[in-house]
Amino acid sequence: MDAAPPLSPTARSTVRRGARRARTDRAELHAVLDAGLVGHLGLVVNGSPIVLPTGYGRRGDILYLHGSTGAASLRAAAAGVPVCFTVTLLDGVVYARSAFHHSMNYRCAVVHGVVRPVTDPDERLLGLEVLTEHLAPGSWAATRQPDRRELAATALLALDLTEASVKVRTGPPGDDDRDVPGPDEPDPVWAGVLPVRTVVGEPEPCPLLPRGTPVPTRVRDRVS
Amino acid sequence: MDAAPPLSPTARSTVRRGARRARTDRAELHAVLDAGLVGHLGLVVNGSPIVLPTGYGRRGDILYLHGSTGAASLRAAAAGVPVCFTVTLLDGVVYARSAFHHSMNYRCAVVHGVVRPVTDPDERLLGLEVLTEHLAPGSWAATRQPDRRELAATALLALDLTEASVKVRTGPPGDDDRDVPGPDEPDPVWAGVLPVRTVVGEPEPCPLLPRGTPVPTRVRDRVS
Prior knowledge:
The structure is a homodimer of 224-residue chains. By secondary structure, the first copy, chain A, is an alpha+beta fold. Chain A has a single domain, classed as Roll (Pnp Oxidase, Chain A). Chain A is 20% helix and 37% strand. Chain A has helices spanning 26-35, 72-78, 121-135, 139-142, 148-152, 217-220, and strands at 22-23, 38-45, 48-59, 62-68, 82-95, 103-114, 116-117, 154-160, 163-169, 192-200, 204-205. In chain A, strands 1, 2, 3, 4, 5, 6, 7, 8, 9 and 10 form a ten-stranded antiparallel beta sheet that branches. The first copy, chain A, is globular and about 70 Å long. Chains A and B meet through strand 2, strand 3, strand 5, strand 6 and helix 3 of A and strand 2, strand 3, strand 6, strand 7 and helix 3 of B. Strand 10 (192-200) of chain A pairs antiparallel with strand 11 of chain B.
């Protein structure tokens, strides 16, 4: 069990539509973030929204994001503007007896906040370790760590998880009673869920790797 | 081959970072959009960005989005504000010989524009058919179509694909030469790609469906 306080939504982090799908447990927020690999960062540039995919990593209630210092979006985010960071996991296609009730099963975390550029050298290394380990567990210790030039080229941002919401849909379709036939009715419309999963396939070694180089456990263990 | 004109990016739809990953072929834009099921819609509400997952469907160079008329985000989008709609497909985790060069293989489409609320009754039905068929091919004809009340509760938006960009990363890690050991060097750091795929599992029938109801081909054929 997670001992952290529950999510305390503000007006904009309160789930209005489909409130029965809202979750208020901080552990559920962490679980969705930990299960995803790609998030979508939204920010406002010249009055228009931009939404870009980005990797991330979580440590406690801090989310770390990174990217090139040359990226205009990250420069804008580093300037202290409000951002929205969303991670969505698709779990299934929901087939209903009406077009209207077709849906998706999913888990979605939405975080609002102002990102903090991470400048402290120790926290920068920590944040990059968190990011690397989220993407590729074990890689931080197994590979060459960033040198001074690489660090200078990397923008690292921290986003606090204070203002966040989680929405989850699970289960069968929510059909209208009128669309559900009795048990003796012939040829009903098929209804149910087609589960969708993200799976990891066989490792594809880099062509520059000597033939026969073993795949380490940290990689092998991720294969579905 | 796609005979449509190539993507003609504006300043904000020009890929600046990683320009070698930018694609300029309209067919590639269509392919990414057609392969995804969930997009992320970004818009500005009270000066702050919000990014929400949403289903969509494509017909030619029009993208249809829909949602409840009660959703604040869709009401804002329908009011003619600029939006950004992004679809990202994760294809792999890229393991490099340095933490810095770890990456992801992906395909990403980013569309900028102002959405148009669809009010014409015929186009509304068409748009909902496109959306339903993208999510669940064959479902529009096989299930009950929306009645007047359901149509009134559904906001349908159209987004033109004029201003869009596509970015794709494929292939092995882009390691520095200094990190790639010679062929006779022992114990190299494993490098390569762990492919990530989205798969569809066995259909889960609705509990209200009579036992033994066959799974139709339109559903069965999607199982991976």
